[in-house]
């Protein structure tokens, strides 16, 4: 049960940290506002599910809305900053996260909203002798599905080839006549949408609250660092490790596991900054 | 701006700060004396922080760790040993020496964003430890502490009158910190730190031990954060894990960048903007950080040198014309 909870949590982190990782790999931008995009996904999902009366429609539309926000962020604030030290990007997106968090509080207030679980997914399923909430199982499978889609997009399509080439060497990509600015925008939009999907999907499980973006961004950073900055495979593994560590910590060690994870993170930064999983070429 | 005018401006600021509490109930409410005490405590952190972040170019997202360490050290001392401020300061500095050397030794192996995240990792570890060690630290509830005293332990001790007594105490610390930090950055050591920021390799080719210099800069800034932490905890008579939280470290960076990193006075100005400006804006809306965030984003895009850095640039080009 704990392992399964950890897995669900890990898969949600894959979605959030995955976007963070592609954005860093391509744009060299560590996006502090990524948690805010996740949060916006949750809030938009909430509002849309009430407005449309359908959770599924909300799950579809919220990421589209957040992708638009992502477009504005990239186009108006990040573009002028390319070529500056990566620290500036981190600071800029930190500022954006402040705006986003307070804008959310301004629009939706400080209340905690719970999103109703769609009727088809309420209740409990039993398999392998464990009773597990259906919705959590859905989140798990849904996240895996999205992750596989992403993996197909990146490995099998032309767009994916461009993105992968971009994480290796931007200048060569430009020399091949590809407008990297458009690719940058595209990647940022995609990452934003991924974060929003995660935010909207977990809303019925974890509720929607103003701190949710801040809560997840540090976890997502830990994942990206454990997995190695810019490495997508590493991110998946890092997310699964952290997901387990948090759940195990909550059950067996009450709190000390999440402190220990930062020692792991420090160790990796010091001794293996490329992350636990080195990308093989 | 010539050195003469700069001196006049600094002395005028000092004069205003010295006279400030006298206007308290008459011209403005005593609340502002309290607010300015807090702003000055942050000023002490920011002065030290600028030596590390602004001059050496190592931006730490874990500086709250020393702020909180100073706070918790003084809490333990006041509760268990002595209520004397100087005992608190000495113990806090010793604790910072130990923790700072460990964290500084490891963190200075890296730079740029790796340094950012390494310092964050250490600070988060400390934060979560303080949060979870409920029996020692009171966990999330924090610890309330009795009033701090000034004087010689055992011989003569006095409570610090509030709010003005504490205000002047903090002011003295702020002025001493400023004078010390200015000496540091004008010393050959300070010049080498700027050299490290601009081009680390060249500095090491000149025969300097870059690593050692970085650790020194790290320790200096850690000490100031700890001193400020002691003052903050004894002033509030309360410590909680919040003091160690990364959002406090984030605030230090926010203030430094707003005011202008690497100008020494800039980060303090940034502190004034964020805390005083925030106070003014908070009467308009509860979510005033939206304006600070917007201002910050604009500054990063248009004027990354911050308010003080940009103004001094403007004044310098004016002079050249």
Explain what you see.
The complex is a heterodimer of chains A (281) and B (321). Chain A has helices at residues 2-27, 34-52, 55-78, 86-108, 134-156, 158-168, 170-175, 180-206, 212-227, 232-253, 256-271; strands at residues 124-127, 130-133. By secondary structure, chain A is mainly alpha-helical. Chain A has one domain (2-209). In chain A, strand 1 (124-127) and strand 2 form a beta hairpin. The longest helix of chain A has 27 residues, at 180-206. Chain A is globular and about 55 Å long. The model of chain A has no long low-confidence stretch (mean pLDDT 85). With 321 residues, chain B is mainly alpha-helical. Chain B has one domain (28-256). Chain B is built from 15 helices and 4 strands. Chain B has helices at residues 3-19, 24-27, 31-55, 64-80, 85-107, 112-132, 134-137, 164-186, 188-198, 200-205, 210-236, 246-259, 265-281, 289-302, 306-320, and strands at residues 143-144, 149-152, 156-159, 238-239. In chain B, strand 2 and strand 3 form a beta hairpin. In chain B, helix 3 (31-55) packs antiparallel against helix 11, helix 5 (85-107) runs antiparallel to helix 11 (210-236) and helix 12 (246-259) runs parallel beside helix 15. Classes of the chains: A mainly alpha (281), B mainly alpha (321). The interface between A and B is large, with 40 and 39 residues.
């Amino acid at each position: 049960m704990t392992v399964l909870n950890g897995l669900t949590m890990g898969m949600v982190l894959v979605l959030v940290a995955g976007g963070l990782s592609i954005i860093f790999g391509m744009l060299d931008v560590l996006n502090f506002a990524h948690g805010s995009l996740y949060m916006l996904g949750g809030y938009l999902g909430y509002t849309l599910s009430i407005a449309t009366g359908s959770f599924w429609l909300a799950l579809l539309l919220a990421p589209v809305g957040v992708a638009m926000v992502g477009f504005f962020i990239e186009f108006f604030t990040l573009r002028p900053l390319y070529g500056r030290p990566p620290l500036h990007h981190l600071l800029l997106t930190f500022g954006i996260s402040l705006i986003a968090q307070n804008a959310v509080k301004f629009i939706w207030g400080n209340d905690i909203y719970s999103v109703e679980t769609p009727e088809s997914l309420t209740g409990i399923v039993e398999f392998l002798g464990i009773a597990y909430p259906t919705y959590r199982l859905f989140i798990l499978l849904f996240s895996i599905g999205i992750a596989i889609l992403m993996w197909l997009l990146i490995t099998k399509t032309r767009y994916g080839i461009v993105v992968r080439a971009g994480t290796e060497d931007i200048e060569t990509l430009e020399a091949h006549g590809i407008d990297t600015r458009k690719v940058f925008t595209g990647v940022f939009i995609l990452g934003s949408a991924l974060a929003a999907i995660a935010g909207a999907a977990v809303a019925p499980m974890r509720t929607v609250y103003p701190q949710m973006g801040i809560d997840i961004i540090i976890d997502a950073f830990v994942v990206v660092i454990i997995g190695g900055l810019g490495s997508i495979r590493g991110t998946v593994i890092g997310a699964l490790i952290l997901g387990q560590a948090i759940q195990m910590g909550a059950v067996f060690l009450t709190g000390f596991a999440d402190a220990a994870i930062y020692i792991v993170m420090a160790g990796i930064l010091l001794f293996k900054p490329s992350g636990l999983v080195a990308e093989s070429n | 701006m010539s050195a003469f005018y700069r001196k006049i401006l600094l002395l005028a600021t000092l004069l205003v700060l010295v006279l400030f509490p006298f206007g308290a109930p008459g011209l403005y409410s005593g609340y502002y004396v309290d607010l300015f005490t807090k702003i000055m405590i942050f000023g002490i952190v920011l002065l030290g922080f600028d030596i590390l972040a602004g001059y050496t170019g190592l931006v730490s997202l874990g500086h709250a760790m020393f702020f909180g360490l100073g706070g918790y050290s003084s809490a333990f001392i006041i509760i268990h040993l002595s209520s004397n401020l100087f005992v608190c300061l000495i113990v806090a500095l010793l604790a910072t020496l130990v923790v700072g050397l460990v964290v500084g030794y490891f963190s200075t192996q890296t730079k740029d964003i790796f340094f950012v995240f390494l310092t964050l990792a250490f600070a988060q570890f400390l934060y979560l430890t303080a949060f979870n060690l409920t029996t020692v630290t009171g966990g999330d509830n924090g610890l309330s502490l009795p009033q701090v005293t000034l004087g010689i332990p055992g011989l003569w001790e006095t409570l610090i009158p509030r709010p003005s007594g504490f205000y002047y105490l903090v002011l003295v610390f702020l002025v001493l910190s400023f004078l010390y930090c200015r000496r540091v950055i004008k010393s050959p050591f300070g010049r080498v730190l700027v050299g490290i920021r601009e081009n680390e390799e060249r500095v090491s080719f000149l025969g300097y031990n870059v690593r050692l210099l970085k650790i020194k800069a790290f320790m200096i800034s850690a000490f100031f954060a700890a001193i400020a932490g002691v003052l903050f905890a004894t002033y509030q008579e309360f410590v909680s894990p919040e003091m160690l939280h990364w959002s406090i470290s984030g605030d230090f960076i926010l203030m430094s960048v707003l005011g202008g990193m690497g100008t020494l006075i800039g980060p303090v100005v940034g502190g004034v903007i964020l805390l005083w400006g925030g106070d003014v804006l908070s009467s308009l809306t509860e979510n005033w950080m939206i304006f600070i965030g917007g201002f910050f984003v604009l500054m990063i895009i248009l004027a990354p040198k911050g308010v003080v850095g940009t103004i001094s640039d403007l004044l310098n080009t004016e002079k050249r014309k």
